[in-house]
Amino acid sequence: MVVAFEEPGYPLARQVFEQHARLLLVPVDESGLCVEHLPEGLMGPKLVYVTPSHQFPLGVRLSAARRVALLEWARRQDALIVEDDYDSEFRYDAPPLPPLASLDRMNRVIYVGTFSKALSPSLRIGYVLAPLLRERLRRLKCWMDYHSSTPTQRALEYFLKEGYFAQHMRRMRRLYAEKRAVLVQALSPVQAVASVRGLEAGLHAFVACDTQVQIESLVQHCLRQGILLTDLSRYYAAEPCQRGVVLGYGGLERHKIEWVGRQIRLACASRSHER
Prior knowledge:
- By secondary structure, this protein is α/β, with parallel strands linked by helices.
- The chain has helices at residues 11-18, 64-77, 100-103, 134-145, 150-161, 164-187, 215-224, 254-274, and strands spanning 2-7, 22-29, 32-33, 47-50, 80-84, 109-114, 126-129, 194-197, 204-209, 229-231, 244-248.
- Helix 3 (100-103) links the parallel strand 5 (80-84) and strand 6.
């Protein structure tokens, strides 16, 4: 079986699919997954994994035209689409595009989400909308661990129904929007060589770096201070075609975000002096 996967993409998901299928790596540009690269016919994939609302790690979103094209491709290919909408609750500037699942009229989309970013990873609760696979997934869940914690699910249900989740999300969006603004401001002096991208949504940013920036030394320096920057190359399965770092800023205090910005600025300045 062939599975189409975003390149670059989410490593843990890629590892899961690699255990059971042959991967077809599909490039991602500023409009998301390049749907035109998906082959058709007997050699084409039967499953596509996408993060259309906030692509991981580049942070772009799948354009409206490509969403339609992807659904049409799936119909012609008799294929399924896994839509991982892992942080769709956090959207700031641009209005949200409709999820693929809401546009799907043929039950081709398996919609996957989680409460890990909106509430806490310790909940260990996610959700899957897959009409065609519902009974099969239910049986698999029973074989794995029967079901998630009932008290936790009941508490979450109450939190949602009584409107507390909506209140929480409004508060969190304001907080994360402020942190995002701090990051943009911190990197504005070096935007010619280190530009922040993927900030329309989510809790991470991609900082595209010029060749002036020594990424490995920057990553190691931040790591010694307890801050994780990840080299973009780690998200590629093949040869990287972009340079930069990925920063999850949601869990950082403002002064830490400012500190990271200074380190990136210093990295840029040191390379300029060497030149």
